Structure formats: C-alpha cells, structure tokens
Amino acid sequence: xxxxxxxxxxxxxxxxxxxxxxxxxxxxxxxxxxxxxxxxxxxxxxxxxxxxxxxxxxxxxxxxxxxxxxxxxxxxxxxxxxxxxxxxxxxxxxxxxxxxxxxxxxxxxxxxxxxxxxxxxxxxxxxxxxxxxxx
Length: 135
Fold this sequence. Notes:
Layout: H1 9-22, H2 25-35, E1 39-40, H3 41-48, H4 52-64, E2 68-72, E3 80-84, H5 86-99, E4 110-112, H6 114-118, E5 124-127
Antiparallel strand pairs: 1-3, 2-3, 4-5
Helix pairs in contact: 2-4
C-alpha cells in the first residue's frame, strides 16, 4: 500500500529556491565541475570558458543558496577556493529521491467534474478506489 507523505511549506519553498538556482545551465556546469573537487576562480574560468565577472556572479548565487562553500587561501587571501557543500548535496539528493519516488505515485484517481457528479460525489471529490475489472 502506498503511504501518503506531505511536504511542508518551508521545505517546498527551500527546494523551489534551489531549483531556480539550478535552472541556469552555467550554474549546473559550475556545480558539476566542483563535484570533481575543490577549485579556484582561475581554474573554473579556464575550464568553463566563462568571464571572471560572470563566474563570480554564478558562484555568489550558488553560495547564497547553500550549494557551495568557499574559503580564502591561508597564505594569500586574494585566492578563494570553492567546493560543493556536501551536507546540502546529501539533503538535496535525499529530498529528490523521496519526492520523485515512483512507488509514491497514487494509482487512485481524484474524480472531479462530470465523472464525480455521475458517481454521486459532487464536482470535487476525494480520491476513490476504482473497482478492478473481474478477470
């Protein structure tokens, strides 16, 4: 039996923000590059072919969304190193697996409109179990 799971508004809002951030192909490219390891602006600029200003903008958006972290070089503070925020990635992965779980898809329709009225349930009805055809 499929168990009903509700997602709270806070989580849905948070995930909506993350999806908006990830909707940009350049940000996905940056995140994919950082999945290969910690990196700095220079390497990312060269690897991805983005201008330094554009790269900086996208790194800021990813950082503000909590998807990446940065740290300054201990010897020369002008250098900034970026890496994937692993706890955030784990949380996103778990949420996506839970949200898009194929076993959670209801096989019961929500009857509404003429079918619900014909079934005597009013125009907007709750899910009903359709009777299986006798074999």
